Amino acid sequence: MLIKNVLKGIKNKPFRIIGIILMVVLAGCLYVSLGYTLFVVEETVDNYVVDYNQEDFSFEMNSYLSTTEISENNYDVQYIYQLPENEQKKIIEERINYLENKYEINIERREYKQINFDSNQLNKTITIRVFKNSKEINQTYIEKGRLPQNDQEIALGIAFAKANHLSLNYNIEIEGDLYQIVGFVYFVDYIYPQLSSENFVYDAKNQALGVLNDTFFEDFSAPKVTYYAGEFLKGSYTKEDVKKIDDFYMVNLVDAKTALRTGAIYGELDANKVLITALSSVILVLAVVVIGIVVNKSINMERRQIGVIKSLGYSRFKILMAYMIYPITAGIIGSIFGYIIGYYLAIPIISFFGIYYQMPVNELHFNINIFINSIILPILLLNLFSAFVIYFLVKKSPLDLMRTKVNHKVNFLVKWMHPILKKFSFKTRFKYNIALRGFGKLFITFIGVLIASIYMIFALSFSQSFKKIIGDVSSSSDYKYQVIYDQPTQAEKNELDDRFMMIPSKINANNSEIEVTLIGVDSTLNRYQLVDDKNKNLLPTLYENEQNVVISSMLSVIHEVDVGDYMSILVTTQDGKDSLKQVKVVGIMENYITPYVFIPIKTLNNYYCLDSSWYNGVWTNEKQTEHVKSLFDKEEMIQSIEQMTGMVKSLVYVMVFVAVLLAIIVLVLIAVFNIEDNFKTISFLKVMGYEDKEISSMVLNIYLPIIIIAYLLSIPITLMSLRKLMSTIGSELNFAFPFNLSLIQTLYGLIIIVVTYYVSLFIAKRKLNKIALQEALKINE
């Protein structure tokens, strides 16, 4: 009999159970789809980096000769590149042997050549980086075909090949020469293929990785760049181990777990784990609370019948089990559907990761932990909480249950708002008294909208960050190329070009040692603009004192360095001794991509015992090829970011959809609860002559202020959380995102939330309109 009653209640009021099921489905779908994605990607990364021996660290060889090397070999020069080729090889080999023996490490030379050319065949500009195949560290993964064995053969990165519809044995033209594609490959040290330190975006359509055979690599017409990959012989290692091997001979020593090309994926995995656990858990908890309210309402509406049944000898356990139909049904149906939908959604998301991060991704397969967390756990939570609520309600005596429940208590919100509301009209006082008296519904509405708004603000701010980066890059400076030479020079430059001295180094700031790039600049710049977020020129301020520096906003965001702070620059001299130079931060330049520290070029050159006429790079509008170590094309970066913005828009649409769906479910549920709680009041309002539209305004449209407050509160909560998360991850990867919201985007978000609110009222209003006046007056007769 009781079970029939409960089933009848579900049939008469289906949206209650449907709403809860949808919330469980949403939480499960989100957790399962992203959970399986992270599980498969993490499993792939763990196996891939071990099987193909990814580097533990990388570094560049110091171009300075040490005082010991100069004295022992009677050299009369300061730099390695000034020596004959055989002497250069000798010094490098001696250094490698010394480092390997001293620190118990293995070192292998990593060489590549990179060119940027206009492809008539593909009708666009292509950047390609070709490697000499590594034998021990950073071994090449062959996805299909083979490695090049003959001249004019090349194995290409599979992402570029797929993006341009290239197949095996196809002849691709590179700088006028034809190369036969004999294989498709992945590079374990380029999981995220960053081809320039200034450009963090990889564009698979226009940027390629490839490998040539050793002989033909040397003949390939492009400047050769050499760095060194290393591994610890003991196997596993920590960040502290990498710091301990820092030596005079090593420049720009980077831990593989913090380098963007090898470590970006670890930061993304860690961030996404926190994100999906938090977001799916909050939705699930919301579903648990809502089902508690549903069960509470169902029992209170039937408390007389329960009292009678209990007096006839029914045990509390039998009554409890009857009402457990709600959580059992919602838990089982919601969890299973959430798991199934999430499982199949994970397939395209995993494929996307395989394109965005260059690696052979494993196939999707079952994981017991995800199964338990997405099915068993929600069912347990829903049922345990519901059982507690039901037991607490039905443990009362039959007489207490049969007695009509009258609540004369007034909560603190009603008392607090009474002096304010009494000045308004009857309709206004009436509607907000209903809202304030239902504290539970008010709280659920606030939390539900807050969570939905957090989803939306995250999506909107993520989209805004890309627009800001494009704006900073395209408008801040009037140059096309940043050219870094393979060695310092004193040669005359074009008078319109800006020269600079770029040196990798470290700073001590806020009790932390931070990897940075020092850039010495002249007091006047034609093409490069050193400006802050208010477009103020920082050069005059920089040159007020030779110990002044300007830092990039990336350092400010991640390491909390601000204007007026003092920090120390680590300078390593030729004799291998370190010295600290104290400097003062006098400005912050808008740059979220690279950890730059700008300093007067004369001061920087003095630190390294160089004349002020030396420089190793220029900002120019002319494409240069001779003695070039690296070439950064600003326009290429802008195009890459704009292409990535398309993917970001898709993510934004998905997150906005999730936010709207969650808000509608919560708001419609609350609106239906309000109608049921005020069923009698609605009937009397109809008797008094109020139209349905007026009643809707007085009973349903009562949460608009709380909706707006929840949305506005979500903005600082989301931005503060994202900046804190970015600070944590960014300090590991030396990378930051400028999470901000424009006024227009803030208004867009508010409009979406308010429209969603009114859509939910429209859905719920149909139930209000169906209330028949004659039936409503029969209640509690």
Helices and strands, with pairings:
Blueprint: H1 2-12, H2 14-51, E1 57-61, H3 67-73, H4 85-103, E2 105-119, E3 124-132, E4 140-145, E5 153-157, H5 158-163, E6 171-174, E7 177-187, E8 207-212, H6 214-219, E9 224-232, H7 239-244, E10 250-255, H8 260-301, H9 303-311, H10 316-323, H11 325-356, H12 368-394, H13 398-402, H14 412-421, H15 426-437, H16 439-476, E11 481-489, E12 498-509, E13 512-521, H17 539-542, E14 548-552, H18 553-559, E15 566-572, E16 578-589, E17 596-600, H19 601-607, E18 615-620, E19 628-633, H20 634-677, H21 679-687, H22 692-699, H23 704-733, H24 743-769, H25 773-776
Parallel strand pairs: 3-8, 5-7, 13-17, 14-16
Antiparallel strand pairs: 1-9, 1-10, 2-3, 2-9, 4-7, 5-8, 6-7, 11-18, 11-19, 12-13, 12-15, 12-18, 14-17, 15-16
Helix pairs in contact: 1-2, 2-8, 2-11, 2-12, 2-20, 8-12, 8-16, 8-23, 10-12, 11-12, 16-20, 16-23, 16-24, 20-24, 23-24
